[in-house]
Design goal:
Blueprint lengths: L3 E2 L10 E3 L12 H6 L4 E4 L8 E3 L3 H17 L3 E6 L4 H14 L4 E5 L2 E4 L1 E4 L8 H13 L4 E5 L2 H5 L8 E6 L7 H4 L2 H12 L2 E10 L14 E6 L5 E7 L4 E7 L2 E7 L4 H16 L6 H4 L10 E5 L2 E6 L4 H11 L7 E5 L9 H12 L2 E4 L9 H9 L7 E3 L3 H10 L5 E6 L6 E3 L4 E3 L2 H13 L1
Parallel strand pairs: 1-2, 2-3, 3-4, 5-9, 5-10, 6-9, 10-11, 11-12, 12-13, 17-21, 18-19, 18-21, 19-20
Antiparallel strand pairs: 6-7, 7-8, 13-14, 14-15, 16-17, 22-23
Helix pairs in contact: 2-4, 3-8, 10-11, 11-12, 13-14
Length: 453
């Protein structure tokens, strides 16, 4: 679809290959592979090669400018909605695209759980794809008749210029809590990275911001049309709610009070819904409250498995704040014991690990620490970092995630609940130099079936 590539494996005859310098690899090392695959031009920062070559100061800037100049005109008439924040991005973006499609506005979703147009089109390696792949997806969505793009825009995606040159019509902010400090170093740097999305609004320039979040002022910029939501006085003010298997709630907008309900559990999902309601209303849609009632969470978000020995809940929660919110939701409804299986990703924020270890062991009756995505980091160090935060001895270590899940299911009794946290929808465990196919939900279902035989 595009004739320029930054991955030598994707090069076909006649393509331009751009050699990008990354954190873990250097595209210059793959130039010969790109030539063998049929590249017609090499764009590099140094070197002499056997086919026409353009030497530039910054290959990333060249790629961004090339894509913008050659392809942006084809996609710029679509409506772009960007959702950012630590937690809630996936749920908000997924629900928003689902509702827009139900309302007749053909919409694509790009984010953590993949690329969707109604149904899943493909998986993605990053929440916000690299800019070459992003353009491929945007052009594909355009070709398939999409009018709107709803994207999760991550702080690292912004920092790595994966959305550079793309302007958004609407930007939504969910919340900011500790995560990714291995990359950003400080919470202020983390907040400022996300702020860049709100500096790139066009057209209606509507910024929809959680008024209750302590970092809100980073996103309430004077140049935008700011819309607020939350429990405090705001444009979309959540007035009251009653939680249960179905949560009913009321909110106020333009002096009018609206009522609705949701099958999504937890106070934080009400915040997610308020952001979705605000964006839809600001886009001109009315009477969306009835549609919301039947919406389900995305795969791997509060995903229940009913088992005759106890309930099993699978969730992507991988930050201290997300874990606290999960515990807050489930503890009042668990009749028996609460168990958890949890790990942390390698080569990621080490500061959050002991906090997570403390929260999960204090919030549960028993915890199994296990592997998640160790990447290049030693799995023992990851688990030891989590254990450093524990003050109780109510845990064990089972490094093999499948065996940890089996053990968690085995110890369930009627009325108990097992939380399986950290990976949610993900389809692989990432090891040092390879990926192992693995999905928490599929592992649970397979083992339950084995137990029934």
């Amino acid at each position: 679809m595009i004739n320029i590539k930054d991955d030598s494996r994707k090069v076909v005859k006649g393509d331009i290959f751009v050699a990008l310098r990354g954190v873990l690899s250097d595209g210059h090392d793959y130039i010969e592979k790109a030539i063998a695959n049929g590249a017609s031009l090499i764009v590099a920062e140094e070197g002499n090669y056997s086919i026409p070559t353009l030497i530039v100061k910054d290959t990333k800037e060249y790629l961004i400018n090339y894509l913008n100049e050659n392809y942006y005109d084809q996609i710029k008439d679509m409506t772009f909605v960007g959702i950012t924040g630590t937690n809630g991005k996936t749920t908000c973006a997924y629900l928003l695209q689902s509702l827009l499609n139900k309302l007749g506005n053909k919409t694509a979703y790009i984010g953590t759980i993949g690329y969707y147009i109604d149904t899943k089109q493909r998986s993605l390696a990053n929440t916000t794809p690299d800019i070459c792949l992003l353009y491929e997806l945007l052009l594909d969505a355009k070709e398939k008749g999409c009018k709107t793009i709803v994207m999760e825009v991550s702080s690292e995606g912004i920092s790595h210029k994966r959305v550079e040159g793309i302007s958004f019509d609407y930007a939504g902010f969910t919340n900011l809590t500790q995560d990714h400090l291995d990359y950003h170093k400080t919470m202020e740097n983390y907040a400022l990275a996300k702020q860049l999305l709100f500096k790139r609004l066009r057209g209606v320039k509507k910024a929809i911001v959680n008024i209750d979040d302590s970092y809100k002022d980073y996103y309430l910029l004077d140049e935008n049309n700011n819309i607020t939501y939350g429990m405090k006085k705001s444009d979309y003010q959540l007035l009251e709610f009653m939680s249960g298997q179905v949560t009913s709630f009321k909110y106020k907008h333009n002096a009018n009070i609206y009522e609705s309900s949701t099958r999504l559990m937890g106070d934080y999902n009400l915040y997610n819904l308020m952001l979705v309601i605000a964006i839809l209303t600001e886009m001109g849609y009315e009477n969306v409250n009835e549609l919301i009632k039947d919406m389900l969470a995305p795969p791997g978000r509060m995903q229940y498995v009913i088992y005759d020995k106890g309930d099993i809940l699978i969730d992507f929660a991988h930050t201290p704040d997300a874990i606290d919110k999960i515990l807050e939701i489930v503890k009042p409804i668990v009749k028996g014991k609460l168990y958890a299986i949890i790990g942390c990703g390698g080569d990621r924020d080490r500061l959050k690990r002991p906090i997570m270890g403390k929260s999960i062991t204090e919030g549960c009756d028993y915890v199994i620490f296990t592997n998640e995505d160790q990447r290049t980091e030693d799995e023992d160090q990851i688990i030891n970092d989590m254990i450093k935060g524990t003050t109780l001895n109510n845990y064990e270590i089972i490094k093999d995630r499948a065996l940890a899940i089996h053990k968690g299911i085995d110890i369930l009794n009627k009325g108990d609940m097992l939380l399986i946290l950290g990976k949610g929808h993900e389809e692989f465990i990432i090891m040092k130099d390879h990926k192992i196919p693995f999905n928490d939900y599929e592992t649970v279902i397979k083992y339950i079936e084995e137990c029934k035989r």
